[in-house]
Amino acid sequence: MRRIYLDNNATTPVLPEVFQTMSPYFGEHFGNASSIHHHGQETRAAVERARDSVAMLLNCRAAEIVFTSGGTEADNLALSGLTVGGDHMITSTVEHHAVLNACKHLEETGCEVTHVPVDGRGLVDPDDVRRALRPNTRLISIMIANNETGVLQPVEEIGRIAAEAEVCFHTDAVQAAGKVPIDVKRIGCHVLSISGHKMHAPQGVGALYLRKGTRLQPLFYGGRHERSRRAGTENVPGIVALGKAAELAMQGFDRGDDRKMSALRDRLEQGILTQVEDAGVNGEGALRVPNTSSLYFGDIDGEAMVISLDLKGLAVSTGAACSSGAIEPSHVLMAMGQRVDRARASVRFSIGKQNTGDEIDIALALVPETVARLRELSPVHRKTVVS
Amino acid sequence: MSDPRTIAVAMSGGVDSSTVAAMLRAEGNNIIGLTMQLWNQRRLAGYEGMPEKVTGRCCSLDDVYDARRVAQHIGIPYYVVNHEERFERDVVRPFVAEYLSGRTPIPCSLCNNHLKFDQLLVVARQIGADCVATGHYARVGYDDARGRWLLKRPADHSKDQTYFLFGLTQEQLAHTLFPLGEMTKPQVRELARKHGLALAEKPDSQEICFVPGGDYKRFIDAYLAEDGEALPDTAGELVTANGEVIGEHSGIHNFTVGQRKGLGVATGSPLYVIQINGADKQVVVGGDELLYSRTLRACRVNLISVDDLREPMPVSVKIRHRHEAAAAMLEKIGPDQFLVTFDQPQRAITPGQAAVFYDDEIVVGGGWIE
After folding, report:
1. Pairing relation of β-strands A65-68 and A206-210?
2. What is the CATH number of the domain that holds A176?
3. Which of A144, A204, A211, A139 is nearest to A173 (CA)?
């Protein structure tokens, strides 16, 4: 069976160039980047080159990049590192669990957290952020792109509000990095998280941009790695890979890869919507990253849809899986005011750099026939059709 | 066997359903492993009287882990499907409501009727399976003469689970496989070992899956507390069969017909709960002899081996899972209401439990005791 992977917001394959660049650092160049000898110097140089590349991707200085084990660690480091008990922070209802659950933990340690809502398109109103400010507000954390819908938040406006109020602004850029150009200066953020495996580097590496002069309490205690902001021997192959992935992302923007990707996504989306009745886009009317399409199909159980498509070789996803692997109704779609049944009837397609037009054609053939079978065998659908 | 069939196996993470998956796979079928996520065990953790740590079995991460490992071992696709909302609506809520009205419910039958052989079958067919196989000990087959699908007791009567399966419709039976129907438990464990399943020695589960430690009273308290609902006051009088008040009780949901312990009254001879009157919150107690009755009414009856009952039929009837089926006459007295008249009086016929009618090995049908 030919397998087609359209779940790139979950993770992406490591691109061949990235793999090639990182692989010498498992064997040939194995040194500890903190060692003073030749082996250490070799890997230190590689880590710093990668830091330069990531800094260039985000338009910041290399010294402002802290490598982490991934997006979740970067988010946790930002939130825990910038707040203390008694502080107030502002976030949104549609953040990733890495932010939402870190906030929950902060609340337990005495912080107050305000969750600003989103509208039906999934957008935060910057005025809501402004209104939520308090004298003790220390941090605002609003994502750039949502993992489920791909909706882009008005982060530059929020950055201006943060600057006026002299409040730290963190943005989770995990789903934006590599998909849309990111400029920390235009956004006006103090901290920003990215993850390697969402942009064709491997799992287990990420980075935090930390604006110079922003004081941060580390999560780990140990050696003075990453300028004492993140203790622990560097994941050199991962960091090298993240650097290479950043370079490839920049080259991609120069070539117009993002436009090509949105053309593929739009073809998939429009193709499905013209063939399938009672279907629509979650986040319609908002700007989105070019690779994501969250669609709902009336009277469909998204879970059954994902399983059916997987059994036919097409990998897509729905909502967020809980620890058992079962699907819970998406907190993002619910926050957008959708009813549970519509949230449950939604499926996410997300494209990666490796996907081809040919694969989109196959997906366009599989999805409508699968929806038809699911509806034919759905007691709910039969009832609605009869009545 | 002709063309390979696509079979969804309902995998609980136990030995029985794991063995079903392994044996059907070995026969050359396309197998899809499915586990239903029905109840979040952590949900009520920490409520008064509930364990801080998760001890219940239902949908525990350990069981999902075990099922997933089996699926990986035998090389089949495996998915967890979330039916928590439906389980709560169709099983947990009615379970609590039944106890609060003085009845003794069987959540397993509700789960089979509403989840395993309904929702799961729908999902299984939607994703391309022809039928669902489970690890129940029962037999199913089509009877040409009657033109009906029949549910039969398994070869190993000591493991018989047909009592919990009386609600299956013809449509459901037509799409259900019980591959363990001809086997004994030791044979199943042996087969599990033969297939190299690491859980071949895993102990059987007995208690109600979503009630930690089997303490349903605490479960009800915690469940209502979570919803912000106060436990309704179901306390009332303890009376004798003659209507004489001999004491008070803490709430009708704490009692089951036939119960002897915990009545809080001391008399010369042992006292049992004879009857629970939900309407006036009375618990009627009396001597053992008063527990016996010759008749019961079954409502919401589902018939399996026959499409209707036009004249009284001699059957044997089980009134609880561990009850030895007793000879009786079955008679239809309403659209889905039946009267059972036993040859010999039966002890502790309990409202809320099921009465399941057998014609020797064949399940005629069953209903809920009124």
Report:
1. antiparallel
2. 3.40.640.10
3. A144
How large is the average pLDDT for residues B109-125? 90
Same domain membership, residue A293 and residue A215: no
Print the domain residue range for B263. Answer: 233-286
Instruction: With a cut of 60, say whether residue B308 has pLDDT above it.
Output: yes
* Beta pairing class for A320-321 and A327-328: antiparallel
Span B130-177, pLDDT tens digits: 999 999 999 999 999 999 999 999 999 999 999 999 999 999 999 999
Q: Chain A residues with CB inside 8 Å of B37's CB?
A: 322, 324, 326
- What angle in degrees, to the nearest 10, is found between the helix axes of A379-386 and A357-376? 70
Q: Which residues of B participate in catalysis according to the annotation?
A: 111, 209
CA distance B59 to chain A (A): 8
Please tell me the pTM assigned to this model.
Answer: 0.90
Query: What's at A386, amino acid-wise?
Result: V
Q: Is residue B171 part of a domain?
A: no
Residue B231 has pLDDT above 90, yes or no: no
Which residues lie below 8 Å from residue B317, measured CB to CB, with a gap of 6+?
Answer: B325, B326, B328, B330, B340, B342, B355, B356, B357, B358
Residues A126-152: tens digit of each pLDDT: 999 999 999 999 999 999 999 999 999
Assess whether B254 and B360 both reside in one domain.
Answer: no
The residue range of the domain holding A130 is 16-253
ipTM: 0.86
DSSP-based helix, strand, coil % in chain B, nearest 5: 30, 30, 45
Closest residue in chain B to residue A374, using alpha carbons only: B126
Whether residue A211 is found in the same domain as residue A324: no
In contact, B342 and B326? CB cutoff 8 Å? yes
Pairing of strands B326-334, B282-286: unpaired
Question: CB B35 to CB A378 under 8 A?
Answer: no
